[in-house]
Structures are given as C-alpha cells and as structure tokens.
C-alpha cells in the first residue's frame, strides 16, 4: 500500500512537471513582451510542509502575472499523502482555500452566493491529488500596489473521522 501511494505521488509530480515545461515557453514569451527586465519571482516559505500528510503544492496566482488593479485568485494542487481519505467542500460559492497578504493586496468581502448554488463534496483518497481555487464568490483579492507580496494560504478540510483540519503554506509573488 505504501509503495502504491508513493507511485501515485510520483506520477502526480511527473504530470505536474510536464505541464510546467509545456507552459514555460509561453510564460517566458509573455514576460519578455511585458518588459525586457521583467522576471517572474515566486518564492515558497514554510518548507516544512513537505513532511505534512496533506500538502498544498504548486501554489500560484491566477493570472500568473498580476498587475496593479487586477482581481486574482489563488490556485493549488492538494496532495493527500495521509493514510486516510480527506474531504472538502468546493464549488463556485465555497472554496477550501483562504489567504492573507502582508501588503499590496486589498481583500474585499461582498455578497455571498444564494441558496441552491452547486456545492461539491470532494474526497481525496490516499495518494490522490486535486485542484482547488480560492477565494469563493463573494470575496475578491485585488492587487493595489507593486512589489513582492507574501501570501499565507490555508487549506481547510475534514479528516476521515469528520474532524476539521487545515494546513498552511506561504509563498511570495510579484505584483507589477
């Protein structure tokens, strides 16, 4: 079983690496088109997450290049490397991701979704990955000033026994 989980994890990492190598030429072209001195800077903090049983991986902004005034989202791939199934609610109204920012971003809370909106209970078995995007409808992240910005992202989920849990990871990105 442990070998099976490690194999699934390895396949997920390989698939992610291939997708990055496929997108990188486009990222480089977009960066050069913006400015001859533009560099995409993303720095990850809290590297102890690697030993966590549930890990947010490949955290980044959407869009990848955030300009002053842009409203953006945070994207993550969640790896369940625990021995049990985890679950979380995901959909347009609810996101299992929440973020705080050290500077340069204004977080606005508005009208939430109405009753009857689609809600999905996502379950990740051991070794599986899933993609999540935050925030949900009603909250926006807007770039307000240029510069390197640290965001602390928290992924909220439930363990197989129904207990609430969360894991936090930070990364730094550039607002241009």
Task: Describe the protein.
- With 176 residues, the protein is an alpha+beta fold.
- The chain has one domain (41-175): Immunoglobulin-like (Sandwich).
- It contains 1 helix and 11 strands.
- Strands 2, 3, 6, 8 and 9 form a 5-stranded antiparallel β-sheet that branches.
- Strand 10 and strand 11 (164-175) form a beta hairpin.
- The longest helix has 33 residues, at 2-34.
- The radius of gyration is 17 Å and the shape is globular.
- Mean pLDDT is 77; it is low at 14-42 and 45-51.
Annotate the secondary structure layout:
Layout: H1 2-34, E1 42-44, E2 54-62, E3 71-80, E4 86-90, E5 97-101, E6 105-109, E7 120-124, E8 129-134, E9 139-143, E10 147-158, E11 164-175
Antiparallel strand pairs: 1-11, 2-3, 3-8, 3-9, 4-7, 5-10, 6-9, 10-11
Q: What is the distance, rounded to the nearest whole angstrom, between the alpha carbons of the first and last residues?
A: 46 Å
- Overall domain count: 1
In total, the number of strands is 11
Task: Describe the global form.
Answer: globular
Overall helicity = 10-25%
Structural class: alpha+beta
- What radius of gyration results from the CA coordinates? 17 Å
Tell me about the largest β-sheet.
5 strands, antiparallel
Count the DSSP helices: 1
The helix/strand series, from N terminus to C terminus, equals HEEEEEEEEEEE
Given as residue ranges, the uncertain stretches (5+ residues, pLDDT < 50) are: 14-42, 45-51
Oligomeric state of the chains? single chain
At the fold tier of CATH, the topology name is Immunoglobulin-like
Architecture, CATH level 2? Sandwich
Percent of sequence in beta strands:
35-45%
Nearest-integer average pLDDT: 77
According to CATH, what is the class? Mainly Beta
């Amino acid at each position: 079983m442990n070998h099976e989980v490690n194999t699934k994890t390895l396949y997920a990492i390989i698939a992610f690496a291939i997708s990055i190598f496929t997108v990188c030429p486009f990222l480089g072209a977009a960066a050069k088109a913006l400015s001859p001195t533009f560099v995409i800077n993303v720095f990850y903090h809290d590297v102890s997450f690697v030993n966590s049983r549930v890990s947010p991986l490949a955290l980044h902004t959407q869009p990848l290049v955030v300009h002053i005034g842009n409203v953006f989202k945070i994207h993550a791939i969640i790896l369940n490397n625990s021995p049990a199934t985890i679950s979380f609610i995901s959909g347009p109204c609810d996101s299992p991701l929440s973020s705080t920012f050290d500077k340069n971003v204004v977080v606005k809370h508005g009208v939430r979704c109405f009753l009857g909106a689609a809600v999905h209970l996502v379950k990740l078995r051991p070794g599986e990955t899933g993609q999540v995007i935050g925030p949900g409808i009603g909250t926006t992240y807007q770039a307000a000033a240029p510069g390197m910005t640290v965001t602390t992202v928290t992924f909220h989920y439930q363990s197989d026994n129904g207990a609430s849990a969360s894991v936090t990871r930070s990364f730094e990105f550039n607002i241009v």
